[in-house]
Amino acid sequence: MDFFTAIKTCFRNYAGFRGRAPRSEFWWFGLFFFIGSALLAMIETRFLGFGAVERVPGGWAWQSNGGPLTGLFALGMVVPLLAVAVRRLHDLGKSGWWLLISLVPFFGTLVLLYFYVQPSQPGPNAFGPAPDRSPPPLP
């Protein structure tokens, strides 16, 4: 699955917590969220005054204080990020309730990271058939 297909799939399943998501869908959507947040933070720093760029010894430092655009983007992405994380866990044959382990400081995040990098379970599992990993058709 490529970058744009993953984004379209995640928005199509905006609040879809059923089914499975392959590793590529999860990581591409995470990259989309990171890039979107960074771009909005840069726009807010440059044009809206939320943040600062300063000259420091050896280079430049940028500090973003978070503004309305970044906050609204993050708020809008909470549900699809949770949904794709749950579907990714389903792809491994695990319940979405495993997300709650992230409440355990440090250890919980490491456990989830370990799960997220694992290859998918081949074939169908209790959460549905294996996701389609074939490339999209050419136009």
Order of helices and strands: HHEEHH
Domains (count): 1
Give the overall shape.
Answer: elongated
Return residue spans where pLDDT drops below 50 for at least 5 consecutive residues. Answer: none
N-C termini distance:
16 Å
Helix tally?
4
Strand content: 5-15%
Question: Topology of this structure?
Answer:
Blueprint lengths: L2 H10 L10 H26 L3 E5 L2 E5 L4 H24 L15 H11 L22
Antiparallel strand pairs: 1-2
Task: Provide an overview of this structure.
The protein has 139 residues and is mainly alpha-helical. It has one domain (3-117). The protein is 51% helix and 7% strand. It has 4 helices and 2 strands; from the N terminus they run H-H-E-E-H-H. It has helices spanning 3-12, 23-48, 68-91, 107-117, and strands at residues 52-56, 59-63. Strands 1-2 form a two-stranded antiparallel ribbon. Helix 1 (3-12) packs across helix 2 (23-48) and helix 2 (23-48) runs antiparallel to helix 3. The longest helix has 26 residues, at 23-48. The radius of gyration is 18 Å and the shape is elongated. The mean pLDDT is 91. Pfam families: DUF805. Keywords: Membrane, Transmembrane, Transmembrane helix. The chain crosses the membrane at residues 26-48, 68-86, 98-117. This is DUF805 domain-containing protein. InterPro entries: DUF805 (IPR008523).
